[in-house]
TrEMBL record:
Compartments, record wording: Cell membrane
The reaction(s) this protein catalyses: 1D-myo-inositol 1,2,4,5,6-pentakisphosphate + H2O = 1D-myo-inositol 1,2,5,6-tetrakisphosphate + phosphate; (2R)-2,3-bisphosphoglycerate + H2O = (2R)-2-phosphoglycerate + phosphate; 1D-myo-inositol hexakisphosphate + H2O = 1D-myo-inositol 1,2,4,5,6-pentakisphosphate + phosphate; 1D-myo-inositol 1,2,5,6-tetrakisphosphate + H2O = 1D-myo-inositol 1,2,6-trisphosphate + phosphate
Disulfide pattern: C92-C425, C287-C300
UniProt protein name: Multiple inositol polyphosphate phosphatase 1
Main location: membrane
Biological classification of the source: Eukaryota, Metazoa, Spiralia, Lophotrochozoa, Mollusca
Length: 493
């Protein structure tokens, strides 16, 4: 199925300083109209929030660059991942790379947009216009036809990611034909557009603009990228089962969210029956969505950094249930994707090992890039054993989880990625000997472009056979049909 590259950038903005200045002036000019001391004090409170909301953690709705230090293109080191130089006595070159990538930053869903409009209508009826003019005069900027569509920031995230991966593995990719790469997407348009933007940056890292083909083939495969929608046991026992979300609802109705809600009532001068807990979560997400798309949001003015920390934790409880470790079926269902990744490594090794001395090695995929969702990459993290806290996050232990490993804003933001690189290693003295008969194979893993220890390994580089053996049960005995067979609810959780 062909996918066309998306290059348009739908929204542009001022420089950071100009945006900050404009935002400050808006806060000032609109609040200045108030003549009462109460409203003057409200002005300073709003101005302070406009300038001091530092937290950029919006759980799974966090843009990639907010939590990951992204290298400037000119500073990306060519072939940074191609040679594995820290394996003593061995010369190692990359022979295959496999990446699983979440789609880029997107617009909110239509249901959330309509809900936000309803919240705003209730607030306007309950608050005085001059208490928070920016919020009072808020207008919805999310068209109905942008329902969960990739937006300009998501395109930029993916194009930049493609460029950096292409540059870091330049020698592995540069001379390969497009047929030596595999691009896998889900049936959702945002993954297709993410793949297109990624491809644009990827090819730009290796070719001049005249050499870039504007179209490429991508494979729609929901069995690999949207297994969570096809696994009846998961859908029945977790995704659509309110009981499975008990910890989430306990926290949503608990004292932490109530405290945030009370603070919002005080800031806006409204009665304590205007907003429900679920409304608080949505205005928090609106703050993140609008800041990502438009650089600022009046919804942020009712929150402070402590509020964001609480609401980020609420999101992490939800992600732990929906995409993480809370229920076994959530991560076990990702075994087809894990199998596909390792079968690609197996095929690469087999092709290299079975090539005759007088033949040119070829015919296998050198790069596999799969584009999915938070519900794709979260279960992959879990089946690999990544970000598994010794004490699960619960509704009653937030204060003890400040250093938790499972923080969705950091591990699975928009454009989150897991990249495996397979290396062929030979003794240093034989690195230029084309007739060397044996080689060892090592694996390295990168999470959001940073080296990450593979569970069970002592070094960042790990023998491939050791890693494969660790996950062999999920790779070789993945029976998705039986695993996902719907059974009585009491047996599910």
């Amino acid at each position: 199925m062909a996918a066309t590259i998306v290059t348009a950038r739908s929204i542009s903005g001022y420089s950071m300083n100009m945006r900050r200045k404009a935002k400050t002036q808006r806060c000032y000019s609109k609040t200045y109209r108030s003549r009462s001391l109460l409203f003057l004090l409200s002005f300073y409170a709003i101005l302070s929030v406009c300038l001091s909301l530092k937290s950029k953690h919006f759980s799974g709705k966090t843009p990639y660059s907010w939590v990951n230090l992204v290298d400037v293109e000119d500073e990306v080191k060519e072939d940074e991942w191609y040679n594995m130089e820290n394996l003593q006595g061995m010369a190692c070159n990359a022979v295959h790379a496999s990446a699983v990538i979440r789609h880029g930053a997107r617009f909110p869903g239509l249901e959330d947009v309509n809900h936000l409009i309803d919240i705003h209508h209730r607030l306007v009826n309950a608050m005085e216009p001059d208490v928070n003019p920016g919020l009072y005069e808020w207008k919805n900027k999310f068209p109905s036809n942008n329902d969960k569509a990739l937006h300009h920031l998501g395109e930029e995230e993916q194009e930049g990611l493609g460029y950096r991966i292409g540059k870091r593995l330049h020698t592995l990719f540069v001379d390969e034909d497009i047929s030596d790469f595999r691009f896998i997407v889900s049936s959702m348009q945002r993954t297709k557009e993410s793949a297109s933007a990624f491809y644009e940056g990827f090819t730009r890292a290796m070719h001049t603009e005249d050499d870039i083909d504007d179209e490429f083939d991508s494979e729609v495969n929901d069995e690999l990228m949207r297994f969570f929608a096809l696994c009846a046991k998961y859908v029945y026992s977790v995704d659509q089962n309110k009981t499975a979300y008990k910890e989430y609802h306990d926290f949503l109705e608990g004292p932490d969210i109530k405290k945030v809600t009370t603070k919002i009532y005080e800031k806006l001068g409204i009665k304590e029956d205007v907003l429900k807990p679920v409304d608080i979560r949505l205005l928090f997400l609106a703050c993140g969505y609008e800041t990502a798309a438009f650089k600022s949001s009046p919804w942020c003015s009712v929150l402070d950094d402590d509020d964001v920390e609480v609401l980020d934790y609420l999101g992490d409880i939800r992600h732990s249930i929906k995409n993480g470790y809370t229920h076994n079926i959530t991560w076990l269902q990702s075994c087809p994707l894990l199998s596909e990744i390792f079968f690609g490594f197996d095929e690469t090794i087999m092709e290299i090992e079975n090539t005759e001395d007088d033949e040119e090695v070829g015919g296998f995929t050198v790069g596999q890039f799969a584009f999915g969702h938070a519900e794709t990459i979260g279960p992959l993290h879990a089946i690999l054993g990544l970000f598994n806290d010794s004490t699960p996050i619960r509704a009653d232990n937030r204060i003890h989880q400040n250093n938790r490993l499972f923080r969705a804003s950091k591990i699975s933001p928009f454009s989150a990625n897991v990249v495996f690189v397979l290396y062929e290693c030979v003794p240093e003295e034989f690195k230029d000997d084309e007739e060397v008969e044996t080689a060892d194979y090592y694996l390295q893993m990168f999470i959001n472009e940073k080296p990450h220890l593979i569970p069970g390994c002592k070094e960042m580089h790990c023998p491939y056979t050791q890693v494969r053996e660790r996950y062999s049960h999920y790779i070789d005995r993945c029976d998705f049909k039986n695993l996902c067979k719907k059974s009585p609810l009491k047996d599910e959780l």
